[in-house]
């Protein structure tokens, strides 16, 4: 078994599809792809990728050895190359982080963040809302250490459209911080309306909760506690007010992963079931009226939370959300997508919207892979096999 | 159907495009020019897709201060709209 591992690692397969006019698909082309594109052929030298972070139109890849590569739109410095590039068509190493072992990456609309194994946080890209956390509103094209956390151990970072969240590793008090735009309450630092802050500020309302995962996208923020509770704050989902502090979803379900779009959220339970908050967005999906005609009266405790239709009896292993589309992977390695499809981000060979999950044909049998992980940028999608 | 309603103070002035912009979920930018705003236009379109947003602004601000676009959001005074 040991000998096989190296070989399997070399055979990692990466597919991308959707909006591609900034080079974000890594296909060396500047156009949309409506079907999954296998990147292995284009990138024979791509090292083994352990995770991806996809932003507005750029991608940050974390390699198995803790190095960082990036591609796509770079006009705000979000690729971290040390210079502004309009777009990078293929993966390039972020050399300024070579001295560090990076363990976690995140990509916002036009900024990026990196966490090292020593707990240091680095940010680059657009800083005009304070989302880089350096105490100013400057943009940076080289990852710059956030000195605020110099004496603390950062574990995770999550970048939204114009804000950032940070989770400290220590499961003690004061563990989640926010900075950047706070107009919709997405920083969770104050009940008052905050335009923006450029230095990390501790969030209120999660002091007594041990957090396992944080998420940010659009003007939304979320955190998942170690005991499976989902907290959301920021812009209100369909029909709900903005929340300036974390609200615990009143549910008996135990969640193990949560991802955010610009108007919806997905949450994966311990049992492999997928729930959606916010639902399909009316500005994007034209046939919303036809959705769920015989909708059940919602349980008041779980109002606004719907089980994703069409996945009955199917165990889900991973979830991802773009701005207006959703992706899940079944335990058999099948990728399913739904939501907005105008740029081919559903990978179904067309530009149609889908109101429930449809299987993507990745043209190769995925069953042999130990697992498949999916990642979404605003209007594009990546799937990769994990050894 | 409008994708979203966005206040002008949340849009960013883009020198290159000579337009106010706001992120579009497709990855491109919704755009509207000062000339459009002066004409009372309130729809900002994305050049890459079918989506558009409704811009919330005060027409008078653009009729009287034509050479003085609102500052970048980060430099603006915090505004509280009742």
UniProtKB/TrEMBL annotation, chain A:
Keyword entries, A-Z: Repeat
Keyword Repeat: yes
Name this polypeptide is given: RCC1-like domain-containing protein
PROSITE patterns in UniProt: RCC1_2, RCC1_3
UniProt repeat feature RCC, residue ranges: 12-65, 66-118, 119-170, 174-227, 272-332, 333-387
SUPFAM superfamilies: RCC1/BLIP-II
Entry keyword Signal: no
Organism: Crotalaria pallida (Smooth rattlebox)
Domain RCC1-like: 14-383
UniProt superkingdom: Eukaryota
One Pfam assignment: WD40_RLD
Lineage: Eukaryota, Viridiplantae, Streptophyta, Embryophyta, Tracheophyta
UniProtKB/TrEMBL annotation, chain B:
A Pfam family hit: Zn_ribbon_CSL
Cited InterPro entries: DPH3/4-like, DPH_MB_dom, DPH_MB_sf
Coiled coil: none
Highest taxon above the source species: Eukaryota
Keywords: Iron, Metal-binding
Gene3D superfamilies per UniProt: DPH Zinc finger (3.10.660.10)
GO biological process: protein histidyl modification to diphthamide
PROSITE patterns referenced in this protein's UniProt entry, alphabetically: DPH_MB (PS51074)
Domain DPH-type MB span(s) in chain numbering: 2-58
Enzymatic reactions: 2 [3Fe-4S](0)-[protein] + 2 Fe(2+)-[Dph3] + NADH = 2 [4Fe-4S](1+)-[protein] + 2 [Dph3] + NAD(+) + H(+); [3Fe-4S](1+)-[protein] + Fe(2+)-[Dph3] = [3Fe-4S](0)-[protein] + Fe(3+)-[Dph3]
One cellular component term from this protein's GO annotations in UniProt: cytosol
Record bears the keyword Nucleotide-binding: no
Pathway linked to the protein: Protein modification; peptidyl-diphthamide biosynthesis
MF terms in GO: metal ion binding
Family as reported in the entry's similarity comment: Belongs to the DPH3 family.
Name of the featured protein: Diphthamide biosynthesis protein 3
Organism: Crotalaria pallida (Smooth rattlebox)
């Amino acid at each position: 078994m040991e000998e096989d591992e190296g070989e399997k690692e070399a055979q990692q397969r990466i597919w991308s599809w959707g909006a591609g006019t900034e080079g974000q698909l890594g296909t060396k082309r500047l156009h949309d792809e409506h079907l999954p594109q296998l990147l292995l052929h284009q990138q024979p030298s791509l090292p083994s990728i352990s995770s991806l972070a996809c932003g507005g139109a750029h991608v940050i890849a974390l390699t198995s050895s803790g190095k960082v590569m990036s591609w796509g739109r770079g006009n705000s410095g979000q690729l971290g190359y040390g210079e502004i590039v309009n777009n990078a068509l293929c993966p390039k190493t972020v050399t300024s982080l070579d001295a560090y072992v990076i363990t976690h990456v995140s990509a916002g609309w036009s900024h990026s963040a990196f966490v090292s194994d020593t707990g240091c946080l680095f940010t680059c890209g657009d800083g005009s809302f304070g989302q880089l956390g350096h105490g100013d509103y400057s943009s940076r094209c080289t990852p710059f250490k956030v000195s605020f956390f110099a004496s603390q151990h950062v574990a995770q970072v999550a970048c939204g459209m114009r804000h950032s969240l940070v989770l400290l590793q220590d499961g003690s008090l004061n563990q989640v911080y926010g900075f950047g735009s706070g107009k919709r309450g997405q920083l969770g630092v104050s009940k008052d309306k905050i335009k923006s802050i450029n230095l990390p500020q501790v969030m209120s309302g999660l002091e007594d909760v041990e957090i396992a995962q944080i998420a940010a996208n659009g003007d939304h923020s979320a955190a998942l506690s170690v005991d499976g509770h989902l907290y959301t704050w920021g812009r209100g989902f369909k029909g709900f007010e903005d929340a300036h502090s974390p609200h615990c979803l009143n549910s008996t379900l135990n969640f193990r992963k949560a991802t955010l779009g610009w108007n919806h959220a997905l949450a994966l339970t311990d049992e492999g079931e997928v729930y959606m908050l916010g639902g399909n967005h009316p500005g994007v999906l034209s046939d919303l009226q036809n959705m769920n005609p015989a909708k059940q009266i919602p349980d008041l405790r779980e109002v606004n939370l719907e089980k994703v239709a069409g996945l009955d009896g199917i165990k889900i292993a991973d979830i991802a959300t773009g701005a207006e589309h959703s992706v899940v992977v079944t335990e058999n390695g099948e990728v399913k997508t739904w939501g907005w499809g105008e740029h081919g981000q559903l990978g179904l060979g067309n530009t149609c919207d889908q109101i429930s999950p449809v299987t993507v044909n990745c043209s190769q049998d995925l069953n042999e892979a130990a697992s498949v992980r999916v990642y979404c940028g605003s209007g594009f999608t990546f799937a990769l096999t994990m050894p | 159907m409008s994708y979203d309603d966005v206040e002008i103070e949340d849009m960013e002035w883009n020198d290159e495009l000579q337009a106010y912009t706001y992120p579009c979920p497709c990855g491109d930018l919704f755009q509207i020019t000062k000339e459009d705003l002066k004409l009372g236009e309130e729809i900002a379109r994305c050049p890459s897709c079918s989506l558009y947003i409704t811009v919330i602004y005060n027409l008078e601000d653009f009729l009287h201060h034509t050479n003085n676009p609102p500052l970048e959001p980060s430099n603006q005074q915090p505004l509280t709209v009742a």
